[in-house]
Design goal:
- The complex is a heterodimer of chains A (about 240) and B (about 325).
- Chain A is mainly alpha-helical and about 240 residues long.
- Helices cover about 85% and strands about 0% of the residues of chain A.
- The longest helix of chain A has about 60 residues.
- The termini of chain A are far apart.
- In chain A, about 35% of the residues are buried.
- With about 325 residues, chain B is an alpha/beta fold.
- Chain B has a 6-stranded mixed sheet with strand order 6-7-8-3-9-10, sandwiched between helices. Chain B has a 4-stranded antiparallel sheet with strand order 2-1-4-5, covered by helices on one side.
- In chain B, strand 1 and strand 2 form a beta hairpin.
- The longest helix of chain B has 17 residues.
- The chains are: A mainly alpha (about 240), B alpha/beta (about 325).
- Chains A and B meet through helix 5 and helix 6 of A and helix 2, helix 4 and helix 7 of B.
Chain lengths: ~240, ~325
């Protein structure tokens, strides 16, 4: 017992010294880290703003043209298998370097989860509700807007959440062609063999992913609760529910 | 109000769902389509609001061929209730009921008033239920909302596809009774689909009995029970059809004026009969079924019962009269 204490005791100064280096790095580069994180979030946000309406539109359209559904989902899943660096490279001749080709590539990457979940969400809406809406005299658009999309929203939100987590990872590689974001420090760190730079940036990227995942997860749960599903809500969901009621 | 004129519906795969069906649903009445599963009764109903269109023949709504009417407008003018209810779980009770008025572009105030009025009618206090979500309600309450939603825009016609089929027997009976009451207050023509002959006899002014794709008899409940047209109808309505007649005939139809010997009205409104030893019997309501009348006769061991209310006796009904009236034809025509 005392030996164990002595052993950990003897390790502590070294560990503190190591930890201290990371803290020093964070202190020295605070401004850059904040700037890059904001850039990263911006790239992700641009992508979501384009990708979600596009994916939801495509996913909705293919519920009406069943024969188109399979090929479109197939193309979208092929997109995901193309290595990101290759895709960036292919887009440079058309869009140059910087943010535009990266955002376009990210939009393409995020289509599969969004289209797929929109399609599944709409096709799995309670059939009785669809029959009732038809029998009560809703047009196809009214049925989509009033019944099918709102009921499919939690499933669509799960797809968006899925897409965002993929996006944050791939956006880091966008720094390779000058889009900025946290990827910048990752590539710099590798070039300069700066371990602190790599580790701190990686932690930030993971934290960003987790944060986005959590926020979208909570909004998905809130939508499920609104749709009358019975779920075990997360802490924040419960808190927001209380705030609302 | 609704005429089916030699209507045939054949699906692309060659299945004939209904084959040359003709009958007329009178304004303000309830017509029940009854028959075994897959006999085409639901398809017949869906022809009215054009969820299906006939292969040949035509369906007329107020004299107009429905195929000449705009599908969407037609459906908004017809109430629609299905067994699975199909409430919109993401909307409050208020928004569910408001569906058709909103589609029709009513003003918010008018919609709110109408929603509250319907909730009152359905015996669901608006203050409690207006803002609830459908998943918070019981099956019976959900179907009440389903019916309220169908009634919201004051339709002239209601289509009801096994509306009470998924409910437990007690709730079903409550809802049937409530609906009969509501219906007597509204001037609405109802087409009602069920597979239960008992429900058909209870709810229907007229009943159309379906065998596979065909209407085999279209008549009043009493007439169907008295003289079924075919062996199929006789089997379908059951061996106890003489007794079932007691349920569909009302005391008021059979009441006679002649006062039996020794009967006298007491100050408390009850009536003394020779055999009741001074305790008296309460008069039957003219709207009571003959089944209730006979049951009360057995209970009090009398052969005649007064009809009326606590204030007055309007007439008399006798065991003999019931027996005579419920005599059924033993020979089926075909």
């Amino acid at each position: 017992m005392s030996g164990l204490v002595a052993q950990t005791g003897s390790l502590t100064p070294a560990m503190l010294a190591g930890f201290g280096r990371y803290l020093q790095f964070v202190e020295a580069y605070m401004g850059d880290l904040v700037k890059l994180t904001i850039e990263h979030i911006q790239i992700t946000a641009y992508t979501i703003v384009i990708a979600v309406p596009l994916g939801v539109a495509v996913g909705t359209v293919i519920t009406h043209y069943d024969r188109a559904a399979e090929p479109i989902l197939w193309v979208a899943s092929i997109m995901q298998t193309v290595p990101s660096v290759a895709l960036f490279g292919m887009l440079i001749p058309f869009l140059g370097i910087g943010t535009p080709p990266v955002v376009l590539a990210l939009v393409l990457y995020s289509q599969l989860p969004v289209i797929r979940n929109t399609y599944i969400g709409i096709t799995e809406v309670d059939e009785a509700a669809v029959e009732a809406s038809e029998g009560l005299g809703m047009t196809t658009q009214e049925r989509l807007r009033r019944v099918q999309l709102p009921m499919a929203l939690p499933v669509i939100m799960a797809g968006v959440r899925n897409a965002v987590v993929i996006l944050i990872g791939i956006a880091a590689i966008g720094a390779f062609i000058g889009a900025g974001g946290l990827g910048d420090f990752l590539f710099q760190g590798i070039r300069k063999r700066n371990v602190e730079m790599i580790v701190v940036t990686t932690i930030l990227l993971s934290a960003l992913s987790l944060a986005f995942d959590y926020v979208f997860g909570v909004s998905e749960q809130l939508l499920r609760v609104r749709n009358g599903e019975e779920i075990e809500p997360a802490g924040l969901t419960r808190l927001l529910q209380k705030v609302v009621t | 109000m609704i005429e089916f004129d030699n209507v045939t519906k054949e699906y692309p795969d060659g299945t004939v769902a209904i084959d040359d069906v003709s009958f007329t649903v009178e304004r303000g009445t309830t017509t029940v389509l009854v028959g075994p599963s897959g006999c085409g009764k639901t398809t017949t109903m869906k022809l009215v609001n054009r969820l299906e269109d006939p292969t040949s023949g035509c369906v007329r709504f107020d004299g107009t061929n429905v195929e000449e009417l705009d599908k969407i407008d037609l459906r908004r003018d017809i109430g629609y209730v299905i067994q699975e209810i199909g409430l919109f779980d993401h909307m409050t009770v208020r928004d569910n009921i408001a569906t058709v008025p909103e589609l029709k572009g009513w003003e918010t105030e008018r919609i709110d008033d109408r929603v509250d009025e319907l909730l009152e009618l359905m015996d669901l206090p608006p203050a409690t239920y207006r803002d609830q979500y459908p998943t918070e309600l019981s099956g019976g309450q959900r179907q009440r909302i389903g019916v309220a939603r169908a009634l919201a825009a004051d339709p002239e016609v209601m289509l009801m596809d096994e509306p009470f089929g998924a409910l437990d027997p007690i709730t079903r009976e409550d809802l049937q009774n409530e609906f009969l009451e509501i219906q007597s207050e509204l001037d609405v023509t109802i087409l009602f689909v069920t597979h239960s002959i008992d429900e058909a006899l209870k709810m229907g002014d007229k009943i159309a009995i379906y065998d596979v794709g065909k209407v085999v008899q279209y008549d009043t409940p009493a007439q169907i029970l008295r003289s079924p047209d075919t062996k199929f109808v006789e089997d379908f309505i059951g061996a106890d059809r003489a007794l079932k007649q007691l349920q569909v005939r009302q005391v008021g139809d059979l009441m006679q004026g002649s006062k039996p010997d020794g009967a006298s009205r007491r100050p408390d409104g009850r009536v003394d009969l020779q055999s009741t030893n001074g305790t008296g019997v309460e008069p039957l309501s003219a709207a009571a079924s003959m089944q209730v009348a006979l049951s009360r006769m057995i209970q009090h061991d009398v052969d005649v019962m007064p009809v009326g209310d606590a204030g007055s006796v309007e007439g008399w009904i006798s065991r003999d009269a019931i027996q005579r009236e419920t005599r059924v034809e033993t020979e089926v025509r075909s």
